[in-house]
Specification:
Elements lengths: L14 E3 L5 E3 L24 E6 L7 H10 L6 E7 L6 H8 L2 E7 L2 E7 L2
Parallel strand pairs: 3-4
Antiparallel strand pairs: 1-2, 4-6, 5-6
Organism: Haloferax sulfurifontis ATCC BAA-897
Protein name: DUF2249 domain-containing protein
Length: 119
């Protein structure tokens, strides 16, 4: 995995404080190198498209929502975006509805996978 900064200009592995004054450890995403297409197995999402994957399980609120919405800004009709979260992303669903995305979620052993795509 590269040590490229995320969309907030942050590198994995250090400690920082979020906007609420809470310190946290930045971590590398889980399952690096695994086949992200496998997350579509239990989801009713298109399987004939490329997969863009984002693991937000280690991010403090509101970064999972912010990073997901940043990535969705460039989502095209040829790609399914998959977010892996440690819980159901209930605050994400209304934003997806407002923007006309199709989506579905399923609980997995390693978290909740949500597939998002342009219908």
């Amino acid at each position: 995995m590269s040590d490229a900064p995320n969309v907030f200009g942050r590198l994995a592995g250090g400690t920082e404080t979020n906007t609420f004054g809470v310190s946290f450890l930045r971590c590398r995403p889980h399952g690096f190198g695994m086949e992200h297409e496998a997350y579509l197995d239990r989801l009713d999402a298109p399987t004939d498209r490329a997969v863009d994957f984002l693991d937000v399980r280690e991010l403090p609120p509101p970064e999972p929502l912010t990073e997901t919405m940043n990535r969705l800004a460039d989502l095209d009709g040829e790609t399914v975006f998959v977010q892996l979260n440690d819980r159901e992303p209930k605050f994400l669903y209304p934003k997806l509805d407002d923007r006309g995305f199709a989506y579905c979620s399923a609980e997995r052993d390693d978290g909740v996978a949500t597939a998002i795509w342009v219908p």
